[in-house]
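Recap from last week: sequence in, structure out.
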Amino acid sequence: MLEIGADKIAFVILRARDYDHGPDGRGGRNAFELRDFIADMTEDEQAELTAVMWIGRGTFDADDLEEAISTAKAEKTTPTEDYLMGEPHLADHLEAGMEALGLTPGEEEDDLLRG
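Predicted structure tokens:
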């Protein structure tokens, strides 16, 4: 199904929440960590992360995952980290996308918070 693991998506969700609620509205150090983490993903993982966000946002249905991934690859014009970090409610959309795909972000987020 997805090359990107739920743990990576959960990490992005956590950092995106920190980024959204940072001291100056830009997340401070968390912004750099989030940007670097996304930039270091493979092209396939970046496309899948974008697709999960689109599904959570309602742009695509969960049944259209492959189409969403293909579209993310074909329509990429800016670095994925810039695109995603400019998306309002990124964490919420990723969480909703994971749920729509039957992935459980809650468990992954809990593991990351404890780790």
